[in-house]
Write a structure and sequence with these properties.
Structural class: alpha/beta
Shape: globular
Order of helices and strands: EEEHEHHHEEEEEEHHHEE
Radius of gyration: 16 Å
Number of helices: 7
Strand content: 15-25%
C-alpha cells in the first residue's frame, strides 16, 4: 500500500509537526497491526539546487512547481511498489544538504508492507498513491505557525489550496491548525 502523508512541515509544541512526524508515528504503530511500514520522505526526491533554486532561494512559485521531481518519485518508489513493480524502492535520489546524488541502493518493501511518503504539495501531480492523508492547516494557522525565515513559502501553500484543493481529494484529512489537538475527518465528511 502506497500512502501519501501530505501537508506543510511546521513547528509545533513538541518540535516539528507535519507529514514527516505523522508518517513516523504511523510507521511505529503499524507493525503491531501486522503491517510493517517504511517511510520514504518526498524531500529525498527534490531536484538539485541548480534547478530547484534557479529563480532564487525564496521564490514561492518555484517552491510550488520546481522543487519535487515527481517523475523520479514515481519511477523509483511508487511504480516499483505498485502492482506491476518489483516490490522495492529507492530511499532517496538526491541529498539536498550536500546537493549531490544520494547513491543509495533499492530496498525491498516488507511483505504486506505500507509505504509512507511524507511531503508537501504531493497531490495534483498524478502520483500513484493508494491512500492520501492530508494535514489541513488553514492559511491563518500557517501564517501564525510558520517561522519568519520560511514565510516566503506561504504563497505556494495558498496556491496549492486554491489550484488543487487537497482536502477535497484526500481519503482522510487531519485538521491540524492546532498541532497539539489534531482532528481526523474521513473522506466524504469534509466540505
Amino acid at each position: 500500500m502506497r500512502v501519501a502523508v501530505d501537508g506543510p512541515e511546521l513547528p509545533g509544541p513538541a518540535g516539528g509537526t507535519g507529514p514527516h512526524a505523522l508518517a513516523v508515528a504511523l510507521a511505529e504503530r503499524l507493525p503491531g497491526l501486522s503491517r510493517p511500514a517504511v517511510v520514504v520522505p518526498a524531500e529525498g526526491f527534490y531536484r538539485p539546487a541548480s534547478l530547484r533554486l534557479e529563480h532564487g532561494r525564496t521564490d514561492p512559485d518555484a517552491r510550488y512547481t520546481d522543487w519535487l521531481d515527481a517523475g523520479a518519485l514515481a519511477r523509483e518508489v511508487l511504480d516499483r511498489c505498485g502492482p506491476q513493480g518489483p516490490g522495492d524502492y529507492l530511499p532517496a535520489l538526491w541529498d539536498t544538504e550536500r546537493d549531490r546524488a544520494a547513491r543509495l541502493a533499492h530496498r525491498p518493501v516488507p511483505p504486506r508492507g505500507v509505504l509512507l511518503v511524507p511531503g508537501s504539495m504531493l497531490q495534483g501531480l498524478g502520483l500513484a498513491f493508494d491512500v492520501v492523508v492530508h494535514l489541513r492547516v488553514s492559511p491563518a494557522a500557517r501564517r501564525r505557525r510558520c517561522p519568519a525565515d520560511r514565510a516566503w513559502e506561504l504563497p505556494a501553500f495558498d496556491r496549492y489550496d486554491d489550484e488543487v484543493d487537497p482536502a477535497a481529494l484526500a481519503d482522510a484529512v487531519v485538521l491540524a491548525d492546532h498541532a497539539d489537538r489534531p482532528a481526523l475527518v474521513l473522506q466524504g465528511r469534509w466540505s
